[in-house]
Design a protein that fits this description.
The chain starts with a strand and ends with a helix. An eight-stranded parallel beta barrel has the order 3-4-5-6-7-8-11-14, surrounded by six helices. The protein has a two-stranded antiparallel ribbon with strand order 1-2. A two-stranded antiparallel ribbon has the order 9-10. It is an alpha/beta fold and 271 residues long. It has helices at 29-46, 72-86, 100-104, 120-128, 146-154, 180-186, 217-227, 253-270; strands spanning 4-6, 9-11, 18-22, 49-53, 90-93, 109-112, 133-136, 161-165, 168-169, 175-176, 192-195, 201-202, 211-212, 231-235. 49% of the residues are buried.
């Protein structure tokens, strides 16, 4: 299996557990700094590798009237401020091919959203930056079919890729996690990540927004850790009820602490 290197962080078999965590949307520089300060300190305390995550644009909101984010220019400024203050790597989504190069100038890890995991031009543009990339498995994809996305990415000569499980469509407004997919995607030869908060999302479940069932985050995260993961992805907001997006499935500071303690214990136990 390839080990993905993101700054001074290594993600893969035999490496320390890593967290990709932060607010769903980069609502403000103040929020990004607040979350990064807490999570970087928590991960240092628990001996977990940490990558700050926030999206400058949420391009697939349920409603066209929903807040999407600050845009690329301001969003990258917020991410740069986090990097400068805390000396930690950052990850954010790209949605179109032309975003890859400018985002790669700031982000240490690029992320391909689940809905776009088959977009050839986007995968190739991300690969050509030679930055590591996290591809989220589409809710409509069988895990073994993610090999095609990996091959498209690797056609650029870039081997720094990992895959994220975030649940599969199960009827209207429901997702289900097939834990077998973590093993299946690992067999492709890449590190695997479990997105514990998007996996409990109820897409479009509130009519003009997505709902969520955060009470299932910890049980699913524990199960994924027991199957075997290299990193955990969680959306974290100090005040989830005020979050611009994905508030119902975001974790507050106390919940992410509990979750990380549990997941790390299982991760370290199974090696």
């Amino acid at each position: 299996m390839n080990t993905v290197k993101i700054g001074n962080i290594a993600i893969g078999s035999g490496c320390k557990l890593a967290l990709l965590g932060g607010p769903c949307t980069a609502e403000s520089q103040e929020l990004c700094l607040e979350v990064a300060e807490y999570l970087s300190g928590l991960c240092k305390e628990l001996d977990i590798q940490y990558i700050f995550k926030a999206s400058f644009d949420k391009a697939n909101r349920s409603s066209g009237n929903s807040r999407r984010g600050p845009g690329m220019k301001k969003g990258l400024e917020y991410l740069a401020a986090v990097k400068e203050k805390f000396s930690i790597p950052v990850v954010t989504d790209i949605h179109e091919s032309h975003e890859a190069e400018p985002v790669a100038e700031v982000a240490d890890l690029l992320q391909i959203p689940a809905f776009l995991c088959r977009q050839t031009d986007l995968l190739v543009a991300a690969g050509k930056t030679m930055k590591p990339v996290n591809i989220k498995k589409g809710q409509f994809m069988a895990p073994e079919d993610m090999r095609g996305a990996v091959e498209k990415f690797r056609s650029t000569g870039n081997e720094q890729v990992m895959l994220t499980e975030r649940g599969s469509s199960f009827g209207y407004h429901n997702l289900v996690v097939d834990m077998r997919s973590l093993m299946t995607m690992r067999q492709i030869g890449v590190p695997v990540v479990f997105d514990a908060t998007h996996s409990v999302q109820l897409p479009g479940g509130l009519g003009n927004a997505s709902g969520g069932q955060r009470e299932f985050v910890q049980p699913l995260a524990r199960a994924a850790a027991a199957v075997g993961i290299d990193a955990l992805f969680t959306e974290v907001h100090p005040r989830p009820q005020e979050a611009w997006s994905d508030g119902p499935n975001s974790l507050d500071f106390s919940m992410i602490r509990e979750t990380l303690i549990q997941v790390k214990a299982i991760h370290d136990l199974i090696g």
